[in-house]
Amino acid sequence: MVRCLEHVIVILFLTFPLICIAQNEVKDPFGLNELPAINAEDKTAELLAKDKRPSIVVITQEGRDGKISGTGTGFVISEDGLIATCAHVIGESRPITVRFADGKEYEVNEIFAWDRKLDLAILKIEKKDLIALDLAKANTAKQGAKVIAMGNPQGLEFSVVSGIISGLREIEDSSLIQIAIPIEPGNSGGPLMDSKGNVHGILNMKSAITENLGFAIPVQDLMRLLEKPNKIAMKNWLTIGQLNPAIWEPVMGANWKQRAGKILVTKPGNGFGGRSLCIFQKEIPEIPYEVKVEVKLNDQSGAAGLIFESDGKDKHYGFYPSEGNIRLTRFEGPGVLSWSILDQVSSQSYRSEEWNRIRIRVEEKKIIGYLNGEKICELNDTVLRGGKVGLAKFRTTEAEFKHFELGKKLSPKITPSGTIKELTQKIDLLIQNPTNGDAITQLKSNVSASKSLLKNKIKELKKTAAALKRIHDQMHREHITKKLIDEVDKGIKSDLTLCALLIAQHDNQELDIETYHSEINRMATDLKALINPADSNEKKVNAISKYLFEDNGYHGSRTDYYNRSNSYLNEVIDDREGIPITLSVIFIELASRINVELNGLGLPGHFVVFYKEQGKRKIIDPFNNGKHISVEEADQIVKDQLGTGKASEYDPADSLSIVKRMIYNLKRITIDNKEYEDALNYVNLLIEIDPNDPQERLSRAILNIQNKQEQNAKSDLEWLLNTKPEGIHLQRIQELYNRL
Fold first, then answer.
1. With 80 as the cut, is the pLDDT of residue 44 above it?
2. Distance (Å, rounded) from C-alpha 75 to C-alpha 55?
3. Nearest to 663 by CA among 676, 688, 682
4. The CA-based dihedral angle spanning residues 651, 653, 656, 661, taken in that order and rounded to the nearest 10 degrees
5. Helices 580-593 and 496-507 meet at what angle, rounded to 10?
6. Strands 555-556 and 276-280
7. What digits encode the pLDDT tens for the residues 462-501?
8. Closest among 651, 655, 647 to 621, alpha carbons compared
9. Between these two residues, 155 and 136, which has the higher pLDDT value?
10. What is the C-alpha separation between 501 and 662, in angstroms, rounded?
11. How confident is the model at residue 671 (pLDDT cuts 50, 70, 90)?
12. Chain-wide mean pLDDT for the chain?
């Protein structure tokens, strides 16, 4: 995999690794030598830091794993909640938090203005009466002037450092203030002030050549951005884990997200007791009906589960685990006096710190509750009727939900007791001999039940957990591998969406493939309503680009390119962020559903799509928002990577080549991160797809050596020595074999 960026940037963005500045790009067009006079209004760095500290903030952005992925600085520029920083500090489509020196935190609720080229952003928070810094008049920065920078370098929050303006430079067609100040990662977005506290610039990069050279964006660029804001509400900015608004509507705060078919909630809600709801938007069946979900809590003293008969606000029933018990409650308003505990049950069926399946049946005069298939409560109550269903969480609970269902009757799928007994016996045999092939074969006859039983046995028998876990995972991977190979073997009739989702499910066993397959079909239905079947291919392709990149916020991942999430189609759909090949898969699959024959084109280091018009390829780049690229531009991509060649020399990518390329990407990421066990899983998958691939055989041998599995490594080395494939240095293979 090759990083695909629009430009090779020769500066350091201070929240990312150091990159040297090309000195031949630096010019001094101004030639200013004037030194300013000191007067009584000037303040020392110490006094200025104390005075301006309340206006400086720490800005953090959240990554795809829900953890802090970047930290920078910002400063208040208006008392009603506007905060200036650098665009790279806030990332792309990330949740953003602002923290002041007094410890108070605020979620950003609007991107007031931003410009990637200028590397500037203005954030909006819900807070009044802030203390704003004064902005200096445009073009008043002078060479040699004393300046002070404030920020959060290397996690050292609200630090201050002084220096001078070395010059006013132009770098890559941008005017910048060069400063002699030792700035560090975390300073980005901080103010560059004169001794009176006026802001002349915004810190944004440093040199890797010397410790005492940095740059700031002139304040006049910030003023221009303020004059012409391009506001984006956070609900439109965020795509990382965003819930589909056609299906779910969070109310009363908290942080609701989706990941791999699961819904996750963190942070307290703003309802009483930290209550927050997530309302299901689909039509509710007439009574009687049932609603169920599987829920897991991080803290058993918390509470999270189902709501039903909800008015979408404060009135609803609740059915959820709380402090190890199961509660059936009724809320008739916003306060504690409107809350009634209708029933509270302690059940041996409840599995602490594990997934629990809760189900409610609503009848005309009765409510019945079930836990893990067992009926645990039945109550006559008709106070609330005619409302919606959904999810709820209380207090500081962090919870996960999966397999939410609503219907007339949702009886659990129960594996016959005879089958359970037989499978349990096979697992007992595996405890005695984990390599019992017959027992493993029997377990594969019912993968779902076997996985559940194996998990329970792992918990019960700690000393055999490692062996059982390996069998469990191996069964899953073998099962997914077989499904993937069967699908790829269909050739032109293979389902590319299914193939891509199976690759993700190979790693994520809980991934609900149907959810995301249905989402592709739903998107195609949306598209069909926007086009005329008689439209040309060009119009249809342009409609796909607009739908994905303008209307729905899909985009190429630039700041987080080497993240495995970008290779998992479900997470690309969740976050609307991906790499060239995954965005191309979505593009191809949508095109096929509106009768456009679109092919993938695997160029070196980049993946694009094309259709033919009058025998000529029309190439589209989904990574760059569906941009049309010329044949010459495609040829240049090839030449940039290989030094020679043309795009026309590359055949259309079939499902097999796309699948293999997606797995190669994952393999490369894990090897680069020294995650050799995961890399070995990908190599095993590649060899199952193509057993005669000598390069992957060699890769597997080397990875087995890394994982101290020398005997497994010798098996692949023997295969290479016996088959003698071209391009393999057999003498080196023999030497390696002899050393094992």
1. no
2. 6
3. 682
4. 110
5. 140
6. unpaired
7. 676 777 788 889 999 999 999 999 999 999 899 999 999 9
8. 647
9. 136
10. 11
11. very high
12. 86
Given phi > 0 = left and psi -120 to 50 = alpha, else beta, which region is 261?
A: left
Residue 52: Cβ within 10 Å count: 23
Q: Output the six-digit token pair for 582.
A: 């995954």
Residue matched to tokens 């009634």: 340
User: Which pTM value belongs to this model?
Assistant: 0.72
Residue-level length of the chain: 740
Angle at 414 between CA 412 and CA 418, to 5 degrees: 170
Residue 99, phi then psi, degrees to nearest 5 = -125, 130
The span from the CA of 572 to the CA of 568, in Å, is: 6
Q: In 3D, which of 659, 607, 666, 651 has the Cα closest to residue 490? A: 659
Q: CA-to-CA distance for 252 and 110, rounded, in angstroms?
A: 18
What CATH number does the domain located at 12-233 have?
Answer: 2.40.10.120
Q: Write down the architecture of domain 510-653 according to CATH.
A: Roll (3.10)
Place of tokens 């594969």: 444
Q: Write down the pLDDT at residue 626.
A: 94
Q: Looking at the domain 657-739, which fold is it?
A: 1.25.40
- Confidence at residue 43, expressed as pLDDT on a 0 to 100 scale: 62
Cα–Cα dist 436/430, whole Å: 6
Domain boundaries, the chain: 12-233, 248-407, 417-488, 510-653, 657-739
What average pLDDT score do residues 27-42 get? 36
The pLDDT value given to residue 206: 57
Percent of residues, the chain, with pLDDT higher than 90: 58
Contact 589, 517 (CB under 8 A): no
Which are the contacts of 243, defined by CB distance < 8 A and separation ≥ 6?
250, 256, 257, 258, 263, 278
Reference 296, options 455, 482, 469; nearest CA is: 455
CA–CA separation, 194 vs 595, rounded Å?
Answer: 62
d(CA 681, CA 676): 9
Calculated CA dihedral for residues 686, 692, 695, 699, nearest 10 degrees? 60
Taking the alpha carbons at both ends of the chain, their separation in whole angstroms is 31
d(CA 34, CA 38): 13
Least-confidence region, from 133-147, 220-234, 409-423, 678-692: 409-423
How do beta strands 555-556 and 577-578 pair? parallel
- Please report where in the chains the tokens 């001094």 appear, as a residue: 28
Render pLDDT for 201-232 as a digit per residue (tens, 0 to 9): 999 875 444 456 788 999 999 999 999 898 88
**What is the CATH code for 248-407?**
2.60.120.560
Q: Which amino acid is at 142?
A: K
Tens of pLDDT along 677-688? 999 999 999 999
